[in-house]
Design a protein that fits this description.
The protein is mainly α. It is about 85% helix and about 0% strand. The mean pLDDT is about 85.
């Protein structure tokens, strides 16, 4: 059976393959940049919403704490200064606990991927064992 159409040489086919691979890699890189740009825009919008929420949450927390002070004063007959001291102290303790827990989670040893490091170390040991074992031609057969 005869092949019809123009015959191309092997160097032409290989050259065309490399040209197409170059175009493919360029397009993939462009797609990655576009996707990264879109993702960064989404992250920026998310951060803006978090900041907006924080701006509204902080004054609302102050108002709720003032309501707690007023409730202690009205309900239990405490003076406003004692009520403020009790509410402020409780919130201070909670804040310090949250702060310390947050700092402890940011320590370097908590960030390191221990499982991955351990697996890489095991892989390195196995690779060294495979390389250092003498080749037994009788086992290959």
């Amino acid at each position: 059976m005869a092949i019809s159409g123009p015959q191309r040489s092997v160097p032409d086919i290989i050259g065309n393959l490399f040209a197409q691979l170059t175009v493919l890699f360029r397009k993939e890189a462009q797609l990655a940049r576009t996707e990264l740009s879109e993702n960064m825009a989404n992250v920026g919008r998310g951060i803006a919403l978090i900041i907006g929420g924080a701006v509204l949450l902080i004054p609302s927390l102050v108002i709720l704490l003032q309501a707690g002070v007023t409730a202690l004063t009205d309900r239990y007959g405490l003076t406003p200064s004692w009520s403020a001291l009790i509410i402020g102290g409780a919130v201070l303790i909670i804040g310090v606990i949250l702060f310390l827990v947050g700092i402890s989670r940011l320590r370097f040893e908590h960030i390191i991927p221990h499982k991955t490091v351990h697996q890489l170390q095991r892989d390195a040991v196995l690779a060294k064992e495979k390389v250092s074992k003498p080749h037994d031609p009788r086992r290959a057969a």
